Amino acid sequence: MRLTRAVFVFYLVFIAAVLAAAFVIGALGR
Amino acid sequence: MKRSLRDNSLSIVFGILLLVVLVGQAFVGHADYNNAARTDGFAQMSLWRFVTSSSFAVDVAENWESEYLQFTLYILLTVWLVQRGSSESKKPTDAGLGSDRSEHVGRFAQLDSPTPVRAGGWWVGIYSVSLTVVMAVIFLLSWSAQAVTGRVALNELRMRDRLDPVSFGGYLASPDFWNRTFQNWQSELLAVGSMAIFAVFLRQRGSPESKAVGAAHDETPDT
Known about the structure:
The complex is a heterodimer.
Chain A: H1 2-28
Chain B: H1 2-7, H2 9-40, H3 47-51, H4 54-80, H5 100-103, H6 115-119, H7 121-127, H8 130-160, H9 168-172, H10 175-201
């Protein structure tokens, strides 16, 4: 289950990081 | 470790493919951007500048939001809507939220049920919709990111044509925003609708997305 939880967290963190980056990029007008 | 990898092979392989394809999108998107800039006589962009640009971000976000809309709708609508004979559907008689017994909640909770289920009360209420909520939140955030970055990307193109930039409100009402949105939504809706009906008559041996090869067309498998 440890790897399963790690994969679960990876997906959530990856999605959150990319979306956060997109908002920052857009807010900066890049 | 080997068994652990096998047990998670589906999500790991899709995750690796995602990263590979996203890197590929960055490279070809960069080349495409610079080709257009060169044609129009504008400055080239470095790869890093491109992957941190709204042009790249909006292309990523518009596809993400449509995928998460697709799954959110599918998770939610298949609670009540059915397709008799489809492996993607519940049996017509099972439409609805299900009983506590079938959902293993309340006094039917099991010893190994997730913590919120064993805790009961409003915890189980929240946990009961957590998949839909997370998918819907990702959809809404991706769609918002598409709007924020799409406006910047559009304004860059408008600046090349010496046109005034559009405001955020103006962008939300613009053909660019809705064209990006609808072109993705229609393809997702087609894929989901056709998958639901194709799975009635067509098969893939060994796939959980398919009925057993020899199952009758009107047999809706147990979920």
